Structures are given as C-alpha cells and as structure tokens.
Amino acid sequence: MTANKTNDTESSVITKKTLHHMFFRSLMYGASWNYERMQNLGFLYTILPALKKIYVGDKPGLATAMKRHLEFFNTHQSAQPFILGVITALEEKEKNKSAETISGLKVGLMGPLSGLGDSLIWLTLVPICFSLGASFGKQGNFLGIAIALILVNIINLSIKYFGLQFGYHSGSEFFTKVEANGDMDRITSSATALGLVLVGGLIAQMVAVNIAWTFKQGGLTVSVQKQINDLIPGFIPMGVTLLLYKFIHKGKSPVMLILVTMVVAIALTALGVLK
Amino acid sequence: MLGTALLVTLVGIIATIDYNGPLLMIHRPLVVGAMVGVVTGNPTQGLIIGATLELMWLGVTGIGGYTPPDTISGAVIGTALGILAGKGATAGIAIAVPISVITQQLDVLAKTADIFFVRKADRDAAAGNPAHIGLWQYSSLGIIVLFEVVPIFIAVMVGGSYVKQLFDIIPPVIMKGLTVAGGILPALGFAMLLNMMLKKGMWVYLLIGFTCAAFGGMSTIAITMVGIVAAYFGPLITSLARKKTVQPNAAAETEQNTSSSDDDDKEDYDL
Fold first, then answer.
1. What is the pTM of this model?
2. Is residue B190 part of a domain?
3. Residue B195 in contact with residue A242, Cβ under 8 Å?
4. Do A44 and B133 touch (CB under 8 A)?
5. Which helix (H) or strand (E) element contains residue A215?
6. A140 CB near a chain B CB, below 8 Å?
7. Last residue of a domain, which of B185, B213, B240?
8. Highest-confidence range of A124-133, B100-109, B144-153, by mean pLDDT?
9. First to last CA, chain A
10. For residue B33, which phi and psi values (nearest 5 degrees)?
11. Is this complex scored with an ipTM above 0.85?
12. In terms of domains, do B224 and B148 share one?
C-alpha cells in the first residue's frame, strides 16, 4: 500500500478500482484462445480498462496501443496478471513513446514465466491437490474434492491477485533482480523436486498391478503378490510406470499407450497372470 | 432422458467455461465426474469414475499451446453413460478414453474458428474503438463452449441405451481385463508427468517419495511434508555446490547429461 502511495504522487490514472476491474477480467483471460495469435485478444481484453484511462481523449493513441496488444501472446494463466501489472505500469509511464520496449518486455516475460507457471501450477500444485482428492474419491469420499478445490484456489487466486498488484507497483525491477540472481531456476527446481517426491509416493499408492499367480509350498498356497508385497513393495507399479515413461520419452503417443495398456491388461487377465 | 441430457450438458458448459476462463479447476475429471454423478442420480459412482479418470489424466495438461485429449467431454460422457447404462467405472473409463481423443479435434476446430473474432478485434483496434472487445472475447468463448457441449448432449441423448446393449454383449473376461487396466492406467498419468518433470539428477526425489510410500507406508500428506523439506534443501545444496566449484562441476554436469538415460535404468537397481 505504501508503494501505491509513491505511484499516486505522479497523479496516477490507474486506481485501485481499475486494478480490481482488470483482475476480474484476467479470470476470463483464456476465453478467446486461438490458433493464430493465441492469447492476444485475451491480453487486450484484460488491459483495456487501463488503456481507456491512459489514452483518454487520444483516439489515435488508443488505436496504436490496442493494435500493439493484439500481437501474438501466450503465457501461463497464473503468470498473466503479473505481466499485465508490469505492462500496465509501463504503458502508464511511457505510453506509445516506448512501443517497442512494451512489446519486447511482454515477449521477454511470457517465456520464462510460462515455464515457471507450468512447473508450479500444472506440474506441482494441480497434481498434488488432485491426486490427493482422487485418492479420497476412489473410496467414495467427497472430502477429497473439497480439499483439492480449496487448496488449489487459495494458492492460484492469490498468485493471480497479488501478481497483478505486485507487477503493477514494483514488478519490473523485481523481475530483473530475480533473473540476475538465478532465483528463478531455483524456484523451478524446488517446485519440480516437490512434485517428483509426490509422484514417487503416488506411484506406490495409486498404481495397482496384482499378480494372480499362486504356488503350493508344503500344502500351503502361497500368493506371488503377497511375497512381492513383503519383499519389494511397489516395485511392479514403479516398473510399469518407468516402462511407460520410457515409451512416452521416445515419443510414443499417450493415447496409443492407453489402448495398448488396455489390450495387454485384458490379455494378461484372460491368461490368468493378473487379477 | 431429455432432462438428464440437459443437466449433463450443463455440467459440460460449466466445466468448459472454467477450463477456458477462471481455472478454478472444477473442470478436472474428479470434479466433473462427481457433478455428473449428482445429476444422473449416483454421486458416489460418479465420484469413483471421476477419481479413476483423474489419476489417468493427471499428466494431461495443455502446456504451451499443445492440444491434449479432451478430458472434459471424455469425463462427462464417460461418467454419464457408465452410470446411465448401469455399468459403472469400468464402462466409464472404456468410453471416456476414445471420446476424449475424438473430441480433441473439435477443440482445435473451435479455436481456429474463433480467429473470426480476433479479426473483428483487429478492425476495432485500428479504429481505436474499445466498445466491442469484450463482446468478441465472450463470443469466442461461446464458440468454444458450443463445440464442446453439442457432442456431449448428442452422446447422452442417444448413447445411453446403445451403451447398455453394447456392454451386455461384451464377455466378462474383457470387462474384468478393463477393470485391471483401470488399476494400471494411473501409471500412464504419472509417466506423462515424469516425462515433463524428470530432468537430469532429479530422479532421487522420485526415489524419496517412492520409499516413503512403499516401505514407510506414509500417507500423501506426510509425503508432501517430506517433499517440502527435500525441495527446500535439495536445490539449495546443488546451487551452493555449483558456486563453490564451478569448473569441475561443469564437467560433471556434461557427464551426467550423456549418461542421463542410464540413470533412469540404474534407478531400478538402486531401489
């Protein structure tokens, strides 16, 4: 809020209300994703409340700015409000004088931030929350959904809301500092590490491969599955997962792998290997 | 039937808007499955189908403009028909997978068709007229939603009875095999995640989590705690080590790079 005051000394036209308006618009940011310029219309839609105030009474200026924000743009949804904040501050300060800087900064920010957003949100937060939710759900327990949705949204909506505020007030200096320190890489690898620990645990918990074979030992029927569970628990699920990983890594299509898995599972069940 | 089909379609609309809008994650198969379960009168069954699909599709995300299998219509139609035909989770998964692949193409079509509205916006921008930008934004969403939910409506309207007949003919051994496949398929979801996450030297984190669960019998929440500790110290140590010995480490890194494919194999023995 103190940062807000320092900006206000230059008689800012972007009020708190404008930023809130932009935040709500940024929630519908992805609605016009297209194969030509991806999130371009979405970006213009979200920054428009600011542009209208900055270029008030300057129609040619507004036209130039609107055209600029219809250029190609694509980033992670949760990172967009931060970029929006940074760009809004720059538009307010420089207007059309620094058109190239504005466009350049947009492109410069969208790449690294979508990488960060993907690893934080899509590869960490969502898998963690929803595998947790699904593990409850598989037992018919609705609590998992509530936990997953609350957790995801508290974190994700905060990133969006405070990202926009922070991006507007002090974003550009912060970003240059973070990138120079190499903090960005560390945050990304921390997120990936956390995700991997969880995936490792979930493979053991969630993947079910049950061997149907049994053998007789001194009048006792011994289940192969039980032996495996006692000696090397989770090794078959991990082995299957790593095998599938190898295939995907070599570029096999996931859809084909699903079908192959189904066929193999049916065949092995029919042969009495799996149950 | 019409009433149910409309309600299921409504779930599809909500999920599609969420996926292309606020991303509150109510478009995830887990939530979609439960919602469809509620409107078709069997919430628990819907939840279980949704949970199974969720695990299978955990690694399916639209990263970097790539169009993934359409998990929304897959989950909606699979859950609805699985429940309506009275065939449960096995049928639900068997339906959801092919559906998600077929409808994937429709999403591409919709997001090509909406370029029409981008052109409209271009014209407005050239004239400096901001009045209709919001209209074009939401018209695009309308197109995307339409392409998503029309197949859902049709599938639920006509599919229910056929699906029941179809699954009545299928021999029990195949149904049993599909159930077994339902247990294995989460492995594919994790494999897809690993494909994006497993970079050089990172497999040790996978091992930590695996050991905690397989040998320690720890719950997911406990593993998350362990993960936070590992994620805090691991990269910190690596970056400190890198700062200390820049030269030898760089050499080691390239070595690690070339043998990275061996690393994955080694993991099996290390366990």
1. 0.80
2. no
3. no
4. yes
5. strand A214-217
6. yes
7. B185
8. B144-153
9. 62
10. -60, -45
11. no
12. no
